Write the structure tokens for this entry.
Amino acid sequence: MLIPQQIFARVSLVVTGLVISSCVIKDLKDDLDSAEQEYGYFKAETTGPDDGSDVLIGLFKRDEGRLSIANLRTVSSGETFYMLVPNAEYTVFAYSDSNGDFAYQPGEPAARIDNPVINWFKDMQIQDRVDIEALQIQQIELADTTTLEKKLDISFEALHKETRVSDNFLSVVSWDDERFSTEIATRSMWEPTWFLREVGYGLYALKKFDPAKKSILLVHGVMDSPPVFETLAETIPDEYQLLLFHYPSGFPLRHTAYVLNEVLDELVRRNQIPPQLDIIAHSMGGLVSKGLLFLADDALSQRLRLFISIASPFGGDASAVWTKRSPIVAPVWWALVPDSPYLQKIAEVDLSDGPRHHLIFAYSHEAAGKSEGDDGVVTLTSQLEKSSQRNATAIYGIADNHKGAVSNPCTLALVTAILQDGSTRVTIPDC
């Protein structure tokens, strides 16, 4: 029997929860409305002479006659790609980088398109999600006879000096960077468009990037940020450099995985590096990483050696079925419904030829706690989804909760041992 004070406490928590829920739902609705009115997809494909060179695409914003670069992409001839862009007037410059210097030279096949086709969300009949395959494609036809009047240098060195478009690419950061704050991590779920506008997707480094050094990519989970790996990072051998992927929790997983793939593709195309890339992912970061593995081309796949996932919901979240009844849903939740199209796609990823997947699951609500049916957040059924087990080189259980598993001493020891080789299961005494 509850005494009056206990009853009051229970009621207060419920009321507080309802107030918080109504606030975040309003924030989410306002944010999604903003996205619908202010954003769209630019989807394009290059055609024309193909000498095997990369094609550099620059999307420039036009403002009262001035041109400023808004986005860029390096692609192969004939490759289809897309970009999420804010409302503006644009001009596309494209050229085949025949001499590999990332700058346009007269005589290189080129194209200029003013007012390219943009698939604006406000002009689309969107039910739940945008159908990427159905988007209208802008053809970018390169021609030897086209001469670009604008001087173009889309090397990252030039962009760093002259623009801010590459600020989030391999910039050196610290663990206490304000972009990694708890407040921003939370807002990224309920206001992902705000995050995109004010923070942006990022691939950061803790030290100046060394093209010759082996790299480890760290991918955080939902409503989290890179510092979740700070304790783990302290145990990683000095022979590795760390790359931190930072993304908004609320955006569709498919889009976030696509962005990660494109960022790493730029890294490989522009530098033919890194020589080796391992991935360590926590929670939903494992789903993002699995999406990357689905999308990666041969050049990137050949560099991927290990995939270490920690407490990842490969089977989704059964509570996400409420999305079918909710009037407002954060786009990420559609992918978390068990057997969603996204989860089915990443379940198809065959890792028999690499990268080696070492799956770490958590099964308690506290460090060294008793075995539960979940880690306080993700069920064991989801963490140990059948296709993930089938593809795993090894599976390890950690007696800790969802977040504690990342810095648990057994996890730290496991990761250090796995990095030494990773081809087989490792054993840690007392773990």
User: Anything to note?
Assistant: DSSP finds 14 helices and 16 strands in the chain.
